[in-house]
Amino acid sequence: MKKALRIMWALMVFSIALTLLGAIPASATVIEVPPLLMTEFAMNPSGTDYRSEYVEIYNCTSEPINLKDYKLAYQNTSARNSGIILFNEITKYAKSDIQKNGKVEPEQAMIEPGKCAVIWIKGNSGDSNASEWTTEDFLAYYENPADVNMFIAEHDITSSSQFVNGGNFYMVNNSGDTWIYLYLVRKEATVDDWQNHIITGFESVVADFATDSYVHLQFDPTNGLTKVYSIVSGGRSLANPYLGIIMEEQDPFFGPVTTTTPEETTTSAPETSEKEEGTTTAPPSAVDTTTVGNTTTAPGKKDDGKKSCKSTIGLGAMALLLPVAFAVKKRKR
Q1: What is the pTM of this model?
Q2: Which sequence spans correspond to the domains of the chain?
Q3: Phi, then psi, of 310 in degrees rounded to 5
């Protein structure tokens, strides 16, 4: 009788273990939000592009990050994953800031946790006077938005015919089925291995961007990059409320905003406060997040999806070992 009870107990524990292990979806994938997230760019401003193109980057972590450890990468092709790759390195000041305003380039160019950096893609084309523009001129062009943390990605290109593999770039206006690839990559990336160094970015086939289009991006948990959240088109004054900050909907930790399953992605936009020129909200503090199965959670929190998954596996393993423990205990007796 005692032997039969022991067997029944072991079978029951084994059944519970299988149930716990079966609760983990086989198709669940883990995509972590990157430490730096691309949140906005302007690629077709009115007038000379070399003076007012920019990319906005958001620090998702709880630590300052040195942007000099990264660079911008760009492709503009008619076929996906083809064409040359171009790079612009990142500095804190433009050459004109140093020459005209006496700025001294620091060894590091830090972006603070939970804050945005605006990277001005500055051309030095003499015929457009872009080379004379300073960071103050750029901010004045966008009507002096407050408290913008500026960085520079300079180039000397005046025509796309000057694009050379591994050389500098400006963003060419897109049309038809042209692909745009815009990334932040690690500084050590080369023309041969740059795809292994992507941190964040945007890639899509796009129709014409209207002149003065400001493209707002949102984290895409299906691939770890970003996707278009909204496009604001019109005069440059429309960029002013957004420059250097992110909306709550763009923050991957403001939720529930985005949920993902292996089959589909759905997005719901929370309400935001209205301002005269547009919708803006103050960026919340940032933490790392992880998408597991169909939820986006923060790894820094105790009940995150990744940790829960590990806990479930741990419980199942413990349950499987219980019959062995009972058998060992009985032998010792």
Answers
A1: 0.70
A2: 35-254
A3: -65, -40
